[in-house]
Amino acid sequence: MLDVHGLRKVYEGSGRRTEAVRDLTFTVEAGELVCLVGPSGCGKTTLLKCVGGLLSPTSGEVRLAGRRVDGPPPGTAFVFQEYGRSLFPWMRVGQNVELPLKQKKLSRERRRALVADALESVGLADAAGAYPWQLSGGMQQRVAIARALAYEPEVLLMDEPFAAVDAQTRADLEDLVRRLWRERGITILFVTHDIDEAVYLGERVIVLSASPTVVREQLKVDLPDGRDQVHTRVSPRFAELRTRVYEQIQAAKRGR
Amino acid sequence: MRPVLLRLAFAVALPAVLVAVWWVASAGSTNVYWPPLRTIFGAFPDVWTGERLREDVLPSVLRLTAGYTVAAVAGVALGTVIGSHRRVRAVCEPVLEFLRAVPPPVLVPVIMLFAGIGDTMKIVVIASGCVWPILLNTVEGVRAVDPVLAETARSYGIRGAARLRDVVLRSASPQIFAGLRQALSIGIILMVISEMFAASNGLGFTIVQFQRGFAIPDMWTGILLLGLLGFLLSVLFRLVERRVLGWYHGLREAGRRSP
Ligand SMILES: Nc1ncnc2c1ncn2[C@@H]1O[C@H](COP(=O)(O)OP(=O)(O)O)[C@@H](O)[C@H]1O
Ligand SMILES: [Mg+2]
Q1: How far apart are CA A116 and CA A126, in angstroms?
Q2: Which residues in A100-210 belong to E strands, given as ranges?
Q3: Interface predicted TM-score of the whole assembly (ipTM), two decimals
Q4: In 3D, which of A84, A75, A31, A81 has the Cα closest to residue A53?
Q5: Alpha carbon A25 to chain centroid distance?
Q6: How far apart are CA B94 and CA A205, in angstroms?
Q7: Considering the entire predicted model, what is its pTM?
Q8: What would the pLDDT profile of A195-222 be if each residue is shown by its tens digit?
Q9: Is the N end or the C end of chain A the one with fewer CB atoms within 10 Å?
Q10: Which of A204, A203, A213 is nearest to A249 (CA)?
Q11: For chain B, which residues lie within 8 Å of any Cβ of chain A, measuring from their own Cβ?
């Protein structure tokens, strides 16, 4: 489904050269939920933006369903790290979710139905008339997710979406992502710097090295499909996996 | 109910005091140029009859509206183009700063050479003075679109007219309105000045006529009317702004509550 091959990205500007990503190669199968985990500043956002067609790689390429990505592909939705700033403050929640749909040739009823369904899915059915800035951080992030869902993407790219919400909200949102993934069969590439989150959410975890970034390790998460915050997180297998990822990250930070 | 009354009382208090002070201070005045306020008030209904309002005030207001509208459309359109293209901006910016620094009344004699002394001249004068704050503020507003919002729009394929209407102009609207507000006061000033140079009707023209004819109380009523007109327009502006920028005031309020 998604093929990242030899991806390299160098930022140039005002006399400074930053090699954010050196050489990344991995694939994501259709319908898979893959977590990318790596230390802060290792180029996770850069990678995701290249995958989403928002940045063009310095070399290497990204292929989506066999087609080379050179601009935002129509079947991809992006949930940004700065969720508060990615909602249009002059539009109500319902309008925010509907705006991207206006670019698709959909009937008005179909749009309305998609918006209502997406807001329902994230538990915000009655917030459609509110402005984003009237909502809490967690609710704003739900709106951003609803907007992505209503867009009916094949691939959903999420950039540390829960980094800035409190622990309880975060647990709820993680379960929401798992549920939506299972219900809708979307391919999800989820970026995080949180090891527990990566292991809890993913079917597979890709561990990135520190900058300049390469893939350090890929790990299949063989936890049962139905996960829950209480039992999964205390299971021995979960502990093993997170220890393994943790060691890799530590080694990565030491730069080996 | 109470808060509304209280706010009204606050709003009216200072003007009432000022009028009272003027009234008392000028009550016994025998200075021809400084007539008692009572005389001015007395002259008001005689001077500003229905006919005068139609023949002098209405043309002024229409010219102001026309000039202001031209400036708003041109300012926002050009500002959007300049603000969205770095190259265009680099070329235009020095020229804009220069043109903006030229005091608009200076342009009146120049514009008279091209546009004669009719309505066109006055509309051009008003428009050419009003356009700068609108244009420069639009440029700033369009430039300052949050990069995360811009990327969001891009990733969802929001392009072209939809991007302009739903993202860029909306995002720039607080700055655009700041420019429109500055332009409004400039517009009123230029409306009067353009009529003082060469005109056969209008508020500015009438006030100058009164002054030349030594009809001093009448001249003062004209000045009062001008003040009232300015006040009315600013209230009207505020109402429109409240509607269009409701989200912006709410957002700022929310930011203050939880930074
Ligand atoms: N637009 C940019 N210009 C220059 N350098 C950048 C830019 N964006 C990110 N970087 C640099 O690239 C590296 C990776 O950044 P980023 O992808 O944001 O990492 P992460 O999301 O993993 O925290 C950092 O060193 C950062 O300073
Ligand atoms: Mg990041």
Answers
A1: 10
A2: 155-159, 187-192, 204-208
A3: 0.91
A4: A75
A5: 18
A6: 54
A7: 0.90
A8: 999 999 999 999 998 878 888 889 999 9
A9: C
A10: A213
A11: 146, 148-149, 151-152, 154-159, 162, 166-167, 170-171, 173, 247-248, 250-251, 254-255
